[in-house]
Each structure stands twice: as C-alpha cells, then as structure tokens.
Design brief:
Elements: H1 2-18, E1 23-32, E2 38-39, E3 43-52, E4 57-64, E5 69-73, E6 79-83, E7 89-96, E8 101-109, E9 115-124, H2 137-147, E10 156-159, E11 166-169, E12 178-182, E13 187-195, H3 198-216, E14 221-229, E15 235-245, E16 248-259, E17 265-275
Antiparallel strand pairs: 1-9, 2-3, 3-8, 4-7, 4-9, 5-6, 5-8, 10-11, 11-12, 12-13, 13-17, 14-15, 15-16, 16-17
Helix pairs in contact: 2-3
Length: 276
C-alpha cells in the first residue's frame, strides 16, 4: 500500500505543479521475499498499484538479483508481460496505456527467487507526447522543462552525426539556428538567435528573458550572471530561472555568448535541465 500511495502522490503533485503537462520518473527499490504473494501459474511477485489514463505512455527498466520479469495488468485484467533477456535486467519496456483506471505492476520471479531489485519507470501523460506545430514560445518552454525531469527520455529522436553523445530533439523552439540534447549532461540546448551586431543580440537577449519570466511566473527564482569566460574561451552572460519541486530542481537558462573567433558573432541560446 505504501508503494501505491507514493507513486499516486508523485503523479498528482506533478499534475498540480505543471497543470498542462505531466512527465515523471518513478523509482522503486524493493526486495522480492518469501513473504510476497505466490501464484502457481505466475510465480512469486511484488505488486504495485498505478492509476493511469488512456493514452499515457510508460517505459520500464529494472535490475535484479534474480532473473526478473514484469507484468502490467490492465483494469480489464489483460496482461502485458516482459521477461529478462540476460538474466538480471529489463531495459526500456515501453507500453501505451489503452485503458483508464487502476493498473497493477508486478515485479516477479520463479517460486524460489528472492533478492533486491531496482525499477525505474519513465511516465508521460497523453497530452505530453507532443504539441502543435504552431505552439508558441511559452508552450514549448513548459513542455521541454517538464520533459527535463526524465532527462528528455521521450524526446530523443536520433543521434546527431557529428557527435554520438548529442541527440536531435523531437520537439524544438520555432526558427532555431541549432539544437541538441546532451546525453552526458542531460540538458536541452537551443541557439535561438545569432548576429554580428551586439546591440541586436542584447535586445533579443533581454526580450527573451522578459518572455521567459512572463511564461514561468513568480514561483521561479531568477539569478543574473554577468560577462565571464567560458570553457571554450568565449565570453557569456546569463539569466538563470530555478524552480524547486520536492527533490527536483528545474533550471532554465537564457545565455548571450560573444564567440571569440576570427569573425565576431553573438548568439542567444536557451538551456533546459533538471537536477535531482
């Protein structure tokens, strides 16, 4: 029952905090013991309750000290089962929810199996799968910020050919110069504007800060950082927006960079990430 309460509250808290979109990482660390339920046709299992809506998507990965399998049981009692392929892990088992109501997720093993396990489920509500092509800056910003909570797991479309650790995003801001998702550092980065004219870049930078502040609202704390050298020997200044929700810190950063190369170039970019 405790697992049910924890997961249910996580999803409700997220829904209230974002209103429009809902994306979550669900982490369960548990143990399959001799006291857990046993079924002769199913094996030993540790059940968890989830309330899910039609159209939601959930992707499950786990590691265990025993050969695990997982079973998702729909309200209609239809079973969705995935088995380990290597004896100890299940990776990226994804399912689109077909029925609204209470689902049962069971972590299971054979009759003699016991041991610790860690399960991670990336969850996305039906209205968080995509957004209209005509979506405005604020809608896209909130969408990407919510997806940062699972390190943009659902938005990674394909690896960018020039760097195997950078991914193309399924959703981007409009009229961008370039963008990517960093697999190493788990952030989304998009260059929104570039110009050889510093005044034009400063105006765009200020306007984007104002638009971001208006979009995110007063719950986000802001912090300004003046011009300083970057690791690539450029110069940059930034405006950081931070929202703390329980154990997650969501960051949105607007950056103006002075590219110190042979041809003078100024870029305005947005960086989005979450830290746990």
């Amino acid at each position: 029952m405790l697992k049910y309460i924890f997961i249910f509250l996580v999803l409700i808290i997220s829904e209230n905090a974002t209103a429009q979109f809902r994306v979550e990482e669900i982490l369960i660390k548990g143990e399959l013991t001799a006291d857990d339920p046993y079924n002769t046709n199913f094996g030993r299992f540790d059940p968890v309750e989830l309330y899910l809506n039609k159209g939601d998507i959930i992707s499950i990965s786990m590691t265990a000290e025993f050969p695990p399998f997982i079973a998702l049981v729909a309200p209609s009692e239809k079973y969705y089962v995935e088995y380990t392929k290597d004896g100890s892990t299940i990776k990226d088992y994804q399912i689109s929810i077909k029925e609204s109501g209470t689902w049962y997720l069971s972590i299971a093993g054979d009759s003699t199996d016991t041991g610790n396990y860690t399960l991670t489920a990336n969850y996305m509500s039906a209205n968080s799968i995509t957004i209209p092509a005509v979506a405005d800056y604020c809608t896209i910003l909130k969408f990407l910020s919510e997806h940062s909570k699972v390190n943009f797991y659902f938005l990674k479309e394909s690896i960018k050919s020039e760097n195997p650790k950078l991914w193309k995003s399924k959703i981007d801001f409009n009229d961008i110069i370039d963008s990517y998702i960093s697999e190493k550092d788990n952030f989304y980065y998009s260059i929104l504007f570039e110009s050889s004219n510093k005044d034009s870049a400063e105006i765009f930078y200020k306007n984007k800060i104002d638009a971001t502040k208006s979009c995110l609202g007063p719950d986000w704390v802001t912090n300004s950082k003046d011009w300083s050298k970057t690791k690539s020997n450029d110069s940059a200044k930034e405006e950081l927006f931070v929202l703390k929700v329980k154990n997650i810190r969501k960051n949105v950063k607007i950056i103006l960079t002075d590219k110190n190369n042979s041809s003078k170039l100024y870029q305005v970019a947005v960086e989005i990430m979450s830290k746990k």
